[in-house]
UniProtKB/TrEMBL annotation:
Pfam families (UniProt xref): AAA_11, AAA_12
Name of the protein in question: RNA helicase
UniProt domain DNA2/NAM7 helicase-like C-terminal: residue ranges: 92-276
GO molecular function: helicase activity
Length: 329
């Protein structure tokens, strides 16, 4: 008990002398912050916080000014219970960020983005940001890692043939198998699994892709496969998107905030797997198709059967290997 008291006292002393203190929302109520006052509170990812969460540090620390940073065009807070349709104010789904914008606090757009290849910025810029974004990264800074692979590629995967397995409605075994093969060949060519990521629109498809990768074994099983909700805030050099079922209602598949996050996680290459004939029904996916090199699943398999890294990719891998060697030494 004395040891805990000493730790808490030490933390309070450190906080008292610090000019800047960073905490999570959950930690804002920590006992070591009791009695602290901060004139300015910065809320990062404010468009993902429910309003009561945003108010906690503002009220507790007696903030005189608030700087809220977020992107209302990306995923909103995750709620277990959605507000009723009759609640036109959005209930807990409305954030402090959106409330302030609605009452006249005009957001300042940070228009320059440095994550992706300029070609990958075009679609989200047109669809979600009114062409106001600028790319701070040159094409040479995001050069290809795979020989012959364009920045944006759509792989047209045919519907899965009936099998003896009981598959969930929102999954596509054909997409899962195609994704696993492409990833396996990229890892075998020399890419680090940490450079790759798979985003699935549906949880059922996440499970299928993971099983396909586990069946292959080796390093490829280490590739991160998640829903878009888990990928917000992350990035990878190459992102594969597995749409899953698209022959029914596309409302969830083409939800703007969800799609925006999905297609903006890639730095160099975005590969979307889906059924082109079904997704063309969506204005948003038509824009993706028109901005991508569209190839069949068979052509993608043939291309990756003899895949090779670019000179830039090999040089990058060599530099990473030398850095790791130096760290070990």
């Amino acid at each position: 008990e004395n040891a805990r008291s000493d730790v808490a006292s030490s933390r309070r002393s450190q906080v008292a002398t610090a000019r800047v203190v960073g905490v999570t929302i959950a930690s804002a109520s920590n006992a070591s912050l009791e009695g602290q006052r901060f004139r300015i509170v910065v809320l990062d990812e404010a468009s993902q916080m429910i309003e009561p969460q945003s108010m906690l540090p503002i009220v507790r620390f007696g903030a005189e000014r608030v700087l809220a940073a977020g992107d209302p065009m990306q995923l909103p807070p995750i709620l277990k219970v959605l507000p009723p349709a009759s609640d036109h104010n959005g209930g807990l789904s409305r954030t402090l960020f959106s409330r302030l914008a609605k009452i006249g606090a005009v957001p300042t757009l940070l228009a320059c983005t440095y994550r992706c290849h300029p070609a990958l910025l075009r679609v989200p810029n047109v669809l979600f940001y009114g062409r106001r974004l600028r790319c701070g990264a040159a094409a040479d800074d995001r050069s290809a890692l795979i020989e012959g692979l364009e920045p944006s590629t759509f792989v047209d995967v045919p519907p899965s043939r009936p099998s003896g397995r009981q598959e969930q409605f929102n999954s596509s075994p054909a997409e899962a198998d195609t994704a696993a093969f492409l990833l396996k060949r990229m890892v075998e060519a020399g890419l680090n699994p940490e450079q790759l990521g798979v985003i699935c629109i549906f949880r059922a498809q996440v499970n299928l892709v993971r099983r396909a990768l586990d069946a292959l074994g080796g390093d490829v099983a280490g590739v991160d496969v998640s829903t878009v909700d888990a990928f917000q805030g992350q990035e990878r050099e190459i992102i594969l998107v597995s749409v899953g079922r698209s022959d029914g209602d596309l409302k969830f598949v083409e939800a703007p905030e969800r799609l925006n996050v999905t297609i903006t996680r890639a730095r160099r290459h975005l590969i979307v797997l889906g059924r082109a004939d079904k997704l063309r029904r969506s204005k948003l996916y038509r824009e993706i198709l028109e901005s991508s090199e569209v190839i069949s699943a068979d052509d993608a398999t043939a291309m990756f059967e003899h895949v090779s890294l670019t000179a830039a990719a090999r040089e990058s891998q060599q530099n990473d290997s030398e850095d790791e060697h130096e760290e070990v030494r």
